[in-house]
Design brief:
Blueprint lengths: L17 H16 L4 E7 L13 E7 L5 H9 L4 E2 L10 E8 L2 E10 L4 H15 L1 H17 L4 H28 L7
Parallel strand pairs: 2-5
Antiparallel strand pairs: 1-2, 3-4, 4-5
Helix pairs in contact: 3-4, 3-5, 4-5
Length: 190
């Protein structure tokens, strides 16, 4: 499968400080459009980690109170120029996925989940936060992504699969650290 971001190639570029601004604009739009439902919005994925090379797609995680009103929420997100991709719910029923295009290129993607009970949320925030403070892991991830993009330049699925082991290892480490930190807080003791 070719990468819909570039049309034919998986392309990793150096970190662009403008990604933070692009996220801020999109988050403000989403916050306004989803005011009745939104709990929190986070910039996730490689574009959210300063210094990390990435595909130039802004990943946005939107937490809502409930997916019960999905039809209304979907229409609100679509009104901002995002394309809803319902077929992905067959594999991930607790997530709604959207993407935005500009000049034939995917520029943004939204992962909309219930904030209160989503392991998806915790994993992605923990991974991002870990890479933001552990430069050696950030750099190792960048090197892995570059190598995989070269090896699988026309196969997004193989590129993504090649990152899985690294990502899961970092997530486990980050979540275990978060759990240990939380268990030592005075108000979390039983």
């Amino acid at each position: 499968m070719s990468d819909p971001v570039t049309g034919s190639r998986v392309v990793i570029i150096e970190h662009d400080p403008g990604w933070a601004d692009a996220y801020a604009v999109a988050a403000a739009e989403l916050s306004s459009a989803l005011r009745p439902w939104v709990v929190s919005i986070e910039h996730i994925g490689s574009t959210s980690v300063p210094g990390l090379a990435a595909k130039s797609v802004i990943d946005i995680q939107v937490g809502v109170r409930s997916l019960d009103e999905s039809a209304v929420i979907v229409r609100a997100v679509e009104s901002l120029g995002y394309e809803y991709v319902p077929e992905l719910e067959a594999d991930l029923p607790d997530r709604r996925y959207f993407r935005r295009w500009s000049n034939g290129r995917r520029t943004h993607q939204i992962h909309l989940v219930e904030r209160g009970n989503s392991h998806w949320w915790e994993r992605h925030v923990a991974f991002r936060d870990w890479l933001r403070i552990h430069e050696e892991d950030r750099d190792a991830y960048a090197a892995l992504k570059r190598r995989l993009a070269e090896e699988h330049r026309h196969d997004l699925e193989a590129y993504t699969d090649g990152k899985t082991e690294f990502v899961l290892a970092i997530e486990r480490q980050a979540l275990n650290t978060e759990h240990r930190r939380a268990s030592h807080l005075p108000w979390s003791r039983a």
